[in-house]
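call fold target=D-2-hydroxyacid dehydrogenase
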Amino acid sequence: MKAYVFSLSPVEERFFLEWEDQHADDEIKYTTSPLTDDTVDLTKGFDAVSVQQMEQIKDEKIYKALADNGIKHLAIRQVGVDIVDLKLAKKYGIVVSNVPAYSPRAIAENGLTGAMYLLRKWGYYHRKMRRGDFTRPVELMSDEIFNQTVGIVGLGRIGSAAAELYHALGARVIGYDPVYNASLEPFLDFVDLETLIKTADIIQLHIPLTKDNVGMFSANEFAEMKDDAIIVNESRGELIDTKALIVALKYHEIGGAALDVLEGESKIFGRKFEDVGSLPEDYTELINMPNVVMSPHSAYYTKMAVKNMFFQSMTDIQRTLDGQAAIFQVK
């Protein structure tokens, strides 16, 4: 197998070397840079590429260059494939795969952690304590999770894991998904999206981004939510209208937001800013709110998940090059 790995992060290096040790006959090269029009020529002489990046791969020139270079498989080391143009990949005969289940619990647990932080009002306490105020005002009395109704939007592998976690803590769990899954009945009640939005105390998003659901949570949805409800986004930032979210938080139309993703996050996440004053205004406003907790698209970031992302990606490449169907091919 001859494969080129793009955007290899420092934490992936140990798993890159582990794969090499186990597959001595493979020729694998890597770069820390993403796959772009400027780097696509690195793929000459290889059969497949593996990427994990936020940069879009939508330019037809990239797909033509990949095909001309002999690339047969484009493996995405993540769940979301919205960075890829599947029609162009098909046009140039390139198989696309992703890693849909590297560790569903890692992401589900991160969402639960954010929800609990907000439910117990830690952000408000932290702000007060930094000012030397260690009192417990009435308005900061919190609720317990078993008294909450949790709504999960999207009941795939990650959403299902989230439902099981909340159910185990005693919460009432309701869920919305266009596809009914009877195996989830022990953990939740299926409802329509409107009922979920109006009923849930905590709403957690676990759905892929499509052109049809951009901004699916905006001013109208926030107005329908309970005024103390918490929204948790572990999927894609563009599912939430950020400006509408800021307004809803400022004017207490909702209670809080736990965000692992953010609209336009590729300009921020994964980078270090020496001048924090240069950060986008929306991010700065959100991060300074006591009823917001954020992480830099790091919900997946566990040892098990990172290894699984790399190994599953490479395994599917191997299958394609051996004439077998990729286990996680995206069509």
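return ok
The first strand starts at residue 2 and ends at 5. The radius of gyration is 21 Å.
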